[in-house]
Design a protein that fits this description.
This protein is an all-alpha fold. The protein has a single domain, classed as Rhomboid-like fold (Up-down Bundle). About 75% of the residues lie in helices and about 0% in strands. It is built from 12 helices and 2 strands; from the N terminus they run H-H-H-E-H-H-H-H-E-H-H-H-H-H. A two-stranded antiparallel sheet has the order 1-2.
């Protein structure tokens, strides 16, 4: 695969904007965090913006840096595999989908924050898209993320992850993100015309 540096640079616009937004929120104080985080009661009372904004709020700075590192890793490997428009669509659908899954399937979860659920979805999407290029990275990342999600469903968070994040890890958000990523990958797997269009669009 020939590297298109223009597309690569363009691809990093998305993580750069998300990083800037997340850093601003992180340094804006607890009142902003409480206003933007996922809060089941507040969402039920009509504060629906939290469905999206929750994913840009973090428990701690180590939690923030860990998630942003994962975000830039996704785009470092897979930025050229999918168009910017499709990345944005997938980001929004992951954010909304994960929050709605948690709201309806995990009513015991009163609040949560973090980008990791979306990251699992994007890693799956990018990995499967990359398989079209027959590169080992795509297969490797897809297997690793699916294996991690399955492990977490049986055994809970990976050792040390809660200490690093500075609080509890909602592994179901990772599971939901991976499922959404798989669903959004279907067009790339089974519709070669759509897949080519997505990869070749600006």
């Amino acid at each position: 695969m020939t590297i298109d540096f223009k597309k690569t640079i363009n691809g990093f616009i998305i993580p750069a904007v998300i990083a800037l937004l997340s850093i601003v929120i992180a340094f804006s104080g607890e009142s902003v965090t409480e206003l933007l985080r996922y809060d089941a009661t507040a969402i039920g009372n009509g504060e629906i913006w939290r469905i999206i904004t929750a994913h840009f709020v973090h428990l701690s700075l180590p939690h923030l840096w860990l998630n942003l590192g994962g975000l830039f890793l996704v785009f470092a490997f897979f930025a050229q595999c999918v168009s910017i428009k499709y990345w944005l669509i997938c980001l929004m659908l992951n954010a909304i989908g994960i929050s709605l899954f948690v709201y309806y399937l995990n009513p015991e979860i009163l609040w949560y924050v973090g980008l990791s659920g979306i990251l699992h979805g994007l890693f799956i999407l990018g990995g499967i898209a990359d398989i079209h290029y027959r590169k080992w990275e795509g297969i490797g990342f897809t297997v690793i993320i699916l294996g991690k999600v399955i492990y977490e469903q049986f055994y809970g968070p990976l050792p040390g992850s809660e200490e690093t994040a500075g609080g509890p890890v909602l592994v179901d958000a990772h599971f939901y993100g991976a499922i959404i990523g798989l669903i959004l990958s279907i067009p790339l797997l089974f519709n070669s015309r759509l897949s080519t269009k997505l990869r070749n669009s600006p």
